[in-house]
Design goal:
The protein contains 7 helices and 12 strands. Strand 6 and strand 7 form a beta hairpin. By secondary structure, the protein is α/β, with parallel strands linked by helices. Bound molecules: magnesium ion. The site of magnesium ion has 7 residues, from loops.
């Protein structure tokens, strides 16, 4: 699909902009990616946001974007827009209780990587895919006692986040801010958690692009992050072309 000046872009990070790595800290940010995002943000008059499961601080670390570029982190549990940080209730006690159970599990299975986040907890099993079932079951039991938390599953990760936060709400919230108002949203993502964002974009009259294979609501597809980056480059040159 073609991006025009009245679109708004919502872009997931891992597996969408960036190729997945064996460990979330080992990703490689291609040269020129941040500059493309900055220029696209400018060409869309500010209507571009990163919508990710990572904390905003990690996006800052990897992309080093100027802070006026909106980022929704931890599936929307934290949102930075127009230089201001928005958030919601964080169930610290419940998270701490679940974390103890996850750490017990990791003692028995050292291939697991537990990642505490400001308002969430991720348990990665990329190094031991056979643990997917046991990890998810253990966490499901742990979370059952805490309705304020929700367990979700991504690529080689099970994650606990505030029940109120998802990428759909993040897209909805951003669409109410001045730079995004009255624009046609386009959400791009590769994972199950992006489907909420897809639904929100489509409900607002926009569309969704799924990266890779797997079931999805999205009506458009791109094969991998390399294709996403090429698509963004092309969108930028079309937006920057005279009369474009
Ligand atoms: Mg992703």
């Amino acid at each position: 699909m073609r991006i025009g000046p009245s679109h708004a872009l919502f872009i997931d990070f891992d597996g969408t902009l960036i190729d997945l790595a064996p460990h979330p800290s080992k990703i490689l940010v291609p040269a020129g990616l941040s500059e493309t995002l900055v220029r696209l943000h400018e060409a869309l008059n500010g209507a571009l946001a990163i919508v990710t499961g990572r904390p905003i601080a990690e996006i800052d670390h990897f992309l080093r974007l100027p802070h006026q570029i909106p980022v929704a982190g931890i599936h929307g549990a934290e949102i930075r827009v127009a230089g201001e940080q928005l958030g919601g209730p964080v169930a610290q006690q419940a998270l701490a209780a679940v974390r103890l159970i996850a750490e017990e599990l990791a003692k028995r299975h050292p291939a697991l990587f537990i990642e505490p986040k400001p308002a969430a907890l991720a348990v990665h099993y990329r190094a031991a895919p056979e643990l997917a079932g046991p990890v998810h079951e253990t966490l499901a039991q742990a979370v059952a006692a805490h309705p304020e938390l929700k367990l979700i599953r991504g690529h080689a990760v099970s994650e606990i986040k505030p029940a109120w936060a998802d990428k759909g709400r993040a897209v909805d919230r951003l669409l109410t801010t001045p730079a995004f108002l009255a624009r046609t949203p386009v959400m791009i993502g590769d994972d199950v958690t992006d489907e909420d964002g897809f639904r929100a974009a489509m409900r607002a009259g926009g569309c969704a692009i799924k990266v890779g294979t797997g079931e999805s609501l999205a009506t458009s597809r791109l094969p991998d992050p390399g294709a996403v980056r090429a698509w963004l480059e092309r969108a930028l040159s079309e937006l920057s072309a005279p009369g474009g």
